[in-house]
Amino acid sequence: MAQAEFEEIVETFEFLDDWEDRYRHVIEMGRDMPEMPEALKVPGTKVEGCASQVWLHASEGDTLEFQGDSDAMIVKGLIAILLSLYNGRTPAEAQGVDVVAELGRLNLTEHLSAQRSNGLRAMVQRIQETAAAKA
Known about the structure:
The two termini are 19 Å apart. The protein is built from 6 helices and 2 strands, in the order ααββαααα. The longest helix is centred in the last third of the chain and has 21 residues, at 114-134. It is globular. By secondary structure, it is mainly alpha-helical. The protein has a single domain (4-134), classed as Sufe protein. Chain: A. The protein has helices spanning 4-15, 19-32, 73-86, 91-95, 99-104, 114-134; strands spanning 54-58, 66-70. Helix content is 53%, strand content 7%. Strand 1 and strand 2 form a beta hairpin. Strands 1-2 form a two-stranded antiparallel ribbon.
């Protein structure tokens, strides 16, 4: 089951025929994300395995609420996509997300470089580890 915000992204991707338009949309999503406070950009929130600088911070609470940032605009957009898929879920719900199938609906991984795909996997792994720790 996908979040409503993620469903909107899927609909937008279906509407945009050209991959350049889709990339621009992903970048725009990254630009629209709330700023992550610099105080949260610490070694404990840094995601290893990404070619660019990536930070993910999970807030305390019964549901997952991540903040994220990157020094690469396309990666920041990928973070926005992941947050739309996971934020607001309980840790148990998050563990049940079939992220490969959900992201497959966007045909995104087919159009990412190997480095970006590895970084995306590292971000998903961090989210899943966080969900498991909170469960």
